[in-house]
Structures are given as structure tokens and as C-alpha cells.
Amino acid sequence: MDIAQYRRHAHRLVDWMADYLETVESRPVRSAVAPGEIEERLPDRPPETGEPFERIFADFERDLLPGVTHWQHPSFFAYFPANSSPPSVLAEMLTAALGLNCMLWQTSPAGTELETRALDWLRQMIGLPEGFAGVIQDTASSATLCAILAARERATEFAANRRGVSGEDRLTVYTSAESHSSVEKAVRIAGLGSESLRAVPVGADGAMRCDALAEALERDVAAGARPILVVATLGTTGASGFDRLDVAGELCRRHGAMLHVDAAWAGTAAIAPEFRWMLEGVEHADSFVVNPHKWMMVNFDCSAHFVRDPAAFVRTFEIVPEYLRTAEHGRVIDYRDWGIALGRRFRALKLWFVIRSYGVEGLRAIVRRHVGLAGELAEAIAREDDFEVVVAPRLALLCFRYRPSGIDDPAALDELNERLLHTLNDSGRLYLTQTRVAGAYVIRFCVGQTVTERRHVETAWSFIREAARGLPR
After folding, report:
1. Model pTM?
2. Which residue, 70, 98, 224, 442, has fewest beta-carbon neighbours within 10 Å?
3. Measured between alpha carbons, how far is 175 from 156 in angstroms, rounded to an integer?
């Protein structure tokens, strides 16, 4: 493809992307294809000669789009959002055109220095105190892994990187029983083993019980183990529980452990001062992660990881072979030394575009709208005799279930709500996911897509009632 062809096709694609964002609401939210259906449409062998772009794009529309679940649909209420925005998409276009690898300062000074500045903007926006330095990771899973590795090295005086982790080390990690599965995966990858992870029970509010955390720490210390890290969650995935950072921080200080805070989804809400209650005690944190690619209109992937002691992370990850030495080494930030990957995309550009395009007040307004819509939905559910709010809105997430009179058996209620969820999602009109609260199967409803308005939530609720009451019993 020469530049003239590229220019022509690029203009066409921009028009297509604009049309897509304008009309995505008319598409089914979740793909309805069967497993293997998309793969069957694709040739078994690659083409021997190049094909015209028109044919490639036609196949994209015909063969691939039916297998797309539309995360930017205003009726996407599943999981947590992975929302986007036109400024972010435009920045990604520039990022792709530039094709930078921001592994070292020298390989892209603008990439490094914009990342430093944009993350300090974000630190100020969400109310983190001075003393945190930021780096963009791909996901919060990577940030958690980095925190566990840094905690492991600090606890072993940086010996584990040399000799590995031995059974005699007996290093332990603590987190909520409702924390993200990435915590256990990171513990495994770090070589500590799942048996070193303590899943601390939660209370009725979905938060890690502080008394249970204290007991687990004391029990392990008495048995000769060494606590190295507590992972506290702000906004658990299932039902949005918020762990107490102040208490967890004091316990970490008492036992010489680090504190990592997973605020991947909920941290964005802290840009609005009225939601900063969640940050009480954050001054104790050694590591803090929030994902602008979840709820800040920055498209995937862009995970902001803030650390108190960058030197400890650099010492954990830095390896400098001759081919990576530069004249500036030691005088500049080389972000490849702050995490796992050597190669790094120019992710800071889209964060910068979004912050500048919306401004802090514009982003606050979107968060407040989403939180308000979740509250209105909870009130509507509470007015119905055959539905119940199981978890009242914690920011923009709530959990509910259908509970018609005459069905009191827990297993029957679980089965009924599971059928309801499948009916809703199979319709293509909205997309929801499930969790369990106190053992009961419930349906999650998370408001967070960029263009979701009141009418989308009201239409979803009307359809939920209609579908539930039409289920055979």
C-alpha cells in the first residue's frame, strides 16, 4: 500500500469509525455467534500474494463484526466499563502512525516526559498526596504483579531475584476474599505459590474485615511466616466493596508489610471530591493503581500505577545489557525499569488528549451522571414488589435479583435469576453479568459507558421487568 492508497483508505476508515460510534446503539450489544463460528469463516491458509484493501475491509465487516461484543454500546452494563471517547481514538491513531517504542528516554523523550507529566496531573486529579510517582502499565493485573515482586524483593533484601524463592522464606500476602483473581495469579507468577495467599473474609458491606486481617497477620507471624504485602481493593469486581486503607495501612506498618491498593475501577470516581472518602488512609499506601481505560474515557489499555519508592521498583526490575545502555542512563527515567515489559507503547498520549479535551470538570460530570443513574435505578427496583436490591449502589454499580412471591427456595431463586440473565443477554438489547453475594446468585448492573443516558437505563429496566415476568416457572 503506497501513501496515496493509505490516504484514501484512511479517510474511509475515519468516516466508518465516526459512523460506528454514531450508530453503535442500533447493533446488538453482545455477539450472538456460536463458538467456532468466526474461525470457520476464515481461510485455513494465509494468502500467498497480497490482497486489495477493499476486499480485506469487506471481509472485516462481513466475517468479523458479527463476532464483536460492542463495549462502547450505551446499553453495555456488564463487568466494569472499558469505555472510550473520540479524543482517545484520535490519539491512538497518532500513536499507531508514529509507531514509537517508549522503552527508554532516548527512544522517545516526548513519550517518557509526557508520561511523567500526565500521570502527575492524574495524581492531582484523584487526590493522591505528594510523594507518589506514576508509570503506565498495560493493566491493573500487571501493576499488582509488580507490587508483589517489589514486596518480595524488599522482604528478601533483593536476594530472591538472585537465588529464587525458597521454602524457608515463607512469605505471605493478604487480600480480600472478594479481590480480583489477578492477585492470586500474580502470587503464583511471583513464585510464592497460592498457599501463601490469605483470602480474608469480608463483612456485610463487602469490605475486608479488619479484625480478620489482623488475626491472619498475627497468626502467620507467630507461625514464623513473614507478611510482605496487603492488597486492599477499592471497588471489588463482584459487588463493589471498599476496604479500609487506614486500618490496613496501620497493620502493614506494624508488621513491616507493603500496602498495594487496587482501585482499578473505582479510583476514577475520586476525581470528584465527594467520592474521596474511599481514599482515607491512602497515605499509608506503597503502591496504587487506577485504570483510566475503565471509566475515564481512555480506551484500552492504560493503567496508571503510582508508587512511593520508585527506586525499589527499579532495583527489582532493572537489567542493563550493553545494547540498552544510553548516555543519559541514571539522569533520566527509563520506564522499562518500572515493570515487566521492555517494549512500551505511547499510552500517555491518549490520556493527555482526554484530560485536555474534557477537562477535570467534564470528567467529573460524566462520573457524577453515571453514579446518579445507578442511584435512580436502585430506587426504581426498590419500588417493585417482585424485585429486590441486594447490594445498594456503591458508586455506579448495584446488584439485584428477581424474587417473585411463592419462590423462597434459594436454589430455585438462583436458577430463575440465571435464566433471566441469559434471556436478557441473548436478546442483544443489553448486556449484564452476575456475581454471588452471601452465596446468592445476583445480577450486576454497572453504569459507565461514555454515552449512556437516562433513557438507556430506563429502557433496560423496562425490558428487565418484562423479561422476568415472562419467564416460565
Report:
1. 0.92
2. 224
3. 21
Per-residue pLDDT tens over the stretch 86-101 = 999 999 999 999 999 9
CA–CA separation, 183 vs 146, rounded Å? Answer: 11
Instruction: Find, among 462, 268, 297, the residue nearest to 377 by Cα.
Output: 462
Map grid coordinates 454515552 to a residue: 451
The C-alpha atoms of residue 348 and residue 92 are separated, in whole angstroms, by 10
Burial label, 19 (beta-carbon count in 10 A; 0-12, 13-18, 19+) = exposed
Q: State the first-to-last Cα distance of the chain, in angstroms, to the nearest integer.
A: 59
Spatial separation of the C-alpha atoms in residues 80 and 132, rounded to whole Å = 26
**Distance in angstroms (rounded) separating the CA atoms of residues 86 and 329:** 37
DSSP 400-465: EEE--TT---HHHHHHHHHHHHHHHHHTTS-B-EEEEETTEEEEEEE---TT--HHHHHHHHHHHH
The SS3 of residue 350 is helix
Q: What is the pLDDT of residues 154-182, one digit of tens each?
A: 999 998 998 888 766 799 999 999 999 99
d(CA 377, CA 261): 29
Q: What is the CA radius of gyration of the chain?
A: 24
Cell numbers standing for residue 331: 539522569
Asked if residue 147 lies in contact with residue 175, where contact means CB atoms within 8 angstroms, the answer is no
Q: CA 350, CA 299: separation in Å to the nearest integer? A: 8
Give the residue ranges of DSSP H helices in 224-270. Answer: 245-255
Give pLDDT tens digits for 44-77: 999 999 999 999 999 999 999 999 999 999 999 9
The pLDDT of residue 406 is 86
